[in-house]
Amino acid sequence: MIKSGPGASLGQGIGGVVSEKVAIIGAGIGGLSSAAMLAARGFDVTVIEKESHVGGKARSVEVDGQQIEAGPTVFTMKDVFDRIFRACGARLEDHLNIHQAEVIARHAWDAGETLDLFADPQRSEEAIGDFAGADAAAGYRSFRAEARRIYEVLDEPFLRGDKSYTPLPMMWRIGLHRIGDAMAMRPFDNLWKALGEHFSDPRLQQLYGRYATYCGSDPFRSPATLMLIAHTEARGVWLIDGGISALAKALRSLAEAKGVTFRQGVAAAQILTEGRKVSGVRLANGDTLSADIVVSNADPAALAQGKFGGLVAKSVPQMAAEKRSLSALVWFAHARTEGFDLSHHNVFFSADYKREFDEIARGAPPSEPTVYICAQDRSARAASPVNIRDAQRERIQIIVNAPANGDTHRYTAEETASCTHAMRSTLERCGLTLEAEMPHQLATPETWEGLFPATGGALYGRASHGWAASFLRQGPKTKVPGLYCTGGATHPAAGVPMAALSGLLAARTIERDLASMRKFLPVATLGGISMRSARTGSTG
Question: Any residues with CB less than 8 A from the CB of 46 and at least 6 apart, and which?
Fold first, then answer.
């Protein structure tokens, strides 16, 4: 029995008695977001997490007695999380210490060739002009305008909207009267070539091509649509005390305040069904949780490969290994650095970008990689944040793109040593030296496959290669009634805010499906999940 009228919730019966039980497998950002939203609507939610921590990829590891962020480090689209907390009767700032970075990232090619991008677009334009000339500054203006237009066209119907399988339904939602906007998505144009329309300087083409790797994709095989990623970052990069893992902990606290139960340290072994509909989850310790609804926050490949039992293996399509996104070699280090003035986010580019991705496509780590460093003890509030003494070690995360072959390829000690040498060589060419014997841990594609089975170590789900790839990501609904998907490997895309949006979409879809099954009952339209875009002034 479902109550109706103002404030009614599809998850509550008369007198607030919960009528639907939800089991969420995985406490990643998508699972946490959907848990909080569903619990706020009155559902009885239990989150099952095999690790002792929440956050999924948003985690930390201990090195040399220091906690180092070991997952995503770039936080954008803060408005998504503002809305989640507000919908649950809370404020993000009451849970986290957070501020906007003045410096988006520092980029280097060779020693002495550096370029900062700023939260203030005028400062970025001036910096680009000083770096590469007036034509480059003009190219930045035209690129910025096009990236913003693509973002604004896709924001409501795609990023924050429902799953669409091809561009045609998307164009229908945009509207035939806005055919110009629909074509502005540029799904059929190549990203690298499109960047050449704005930048003749190959370094700037390389800088903005790198944004394709934010969703685990090769910039030479991706659609021009991905230019929108640069705009999401230009709208604001935020720094959280404690990093993204602190955000995950805050989402857990938010969910618990709404009544969510967490079962941690035990894996989900099987999704149970009864009459071809989900009925619960069996845990690895033998316990069984009954559930009317199950939300999988695992990579959809884990469902397809039968990691949760053969009964739900056909609930989502199989994805070929060659469609996987990039993996990564990641060093978590406590190290002394010399010679280069690090900001919080730093990128050191390879000399031959095409060769780098050709090598990855052939299944090998790059011989001369582009290297990303998050210097976690550096503040990005200032243009030149020098707050680490040369003799003092600092916490750094170092990322090099790699093929997603962690299920088929074993990284030997010799190979990891070679990868470490290649990483150091790029940094030294750009002017940065790391101490020789730095305390560190190294994660390879094998490591990621162990943490996230059935992925091969792919960190972003499906690669966005070709015009249709972004529309082929798994949506919230599966072929098994009552079974839903969320997380960074599902619609709309990879990344922290996108995973949160997938959680909101899963919650919204569950409520709609329940409403459609109860059309004979009056049901209030629920707000707070279908979110309008925050139309704040652009910072990029």
Answer: 21, 22, 23, 24, 260, 261, 262, 263, 289, 291
